[in-house]
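**Backbone shape codes:**
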Amino acid sequence: MTLRRFFSGLAAATALALTGAAFAPAAVEAAPKGAQVTKKIQRGLHRTDLTVRSAAMKDSIPVTVLSPPGDEPRGTLYLLDGADGGDKVSDWITKGGATRFFAGRNVNVVLPAGGAGSFYTDWIRKDRKLGKPQWETFLTEELPELMAEQFGSNGRNAVMGLSMGGQSAFTLAVRNPELYRGVGSLSGCPPVSGPANEAYVRTTVGRTGADASNMWGAPGSKTWREHDPALHLDALRGKALFLSAGSGAVGPPDFTIERDPDEGPEDAQIAAGSALEAAAYRCSLEFAAKLTGAGIDYTPGFRLIGTHSWPYWQQDLEGAWGTLGPSIS
């Protein structure tokens, strides 16, 4: 079974759709750095859905914000999807239970959608499938000022993601160390150098029909190395760090997921999720060892059981927030 097939198992994760009453869109509101809110829908007391026009992306990006009532300054957590992230709404909203988890917590949670297969990075060349995404510029230069203007900020930020988004979170942090106080990866693979890790990146991008050479160039190139957190560990020193992954062993939660029969038999989907998580486990342990060797503290969330699926990421969210939350409060 190929890694491409392993990734497809993620699409069968259970959908915990969270909906609310939608009110009329708000007026257009400008922000610095070329970002602009072109549509705002209040989905509930704590959830706002935005459409943000990005000058860097040359496109409109759906962004959900979870925020408590009031306009007091508070920290901001950027929460990134995995390789199969939703086009219109983040998977953390529809599958991950983020709306319930963060209800009542004093934090602004920013959840962009539409980043599938992109590694949330600035691509160096135009790709026939994905165009030329400029996610890093959008997330680090445009969106923070816009979020501060719209929802208030105490100037403290953290970034976290699952799977592909976990790698992206650490890359964003080492390339923009002044922006983030906390970083988290759930079932991700932060290092991108070496045959196994390079294959993971190329396969993840390739399953969208895109070419990773248009993202960072050839494996081992200068741009590729610049996006490897394992080669820039000093930029993580002093930050709150969280790493989690399961061993790949199947557990009871794997039999509670409502699976899509179009993705194949249940046992095949479980096997795919098991193999993919075992690979993330290996890679995350490799990164943890590098952090330890460099004398950089982190909080481990490694599990003896767990496949690459939402029930385990929902469990990990508690530990991740326990580590990152204090860094931005």
Remarks:
- The radius of gyration is 18 Å.
- Residues 52 and 61 are 5 Å apart (CA to CA).
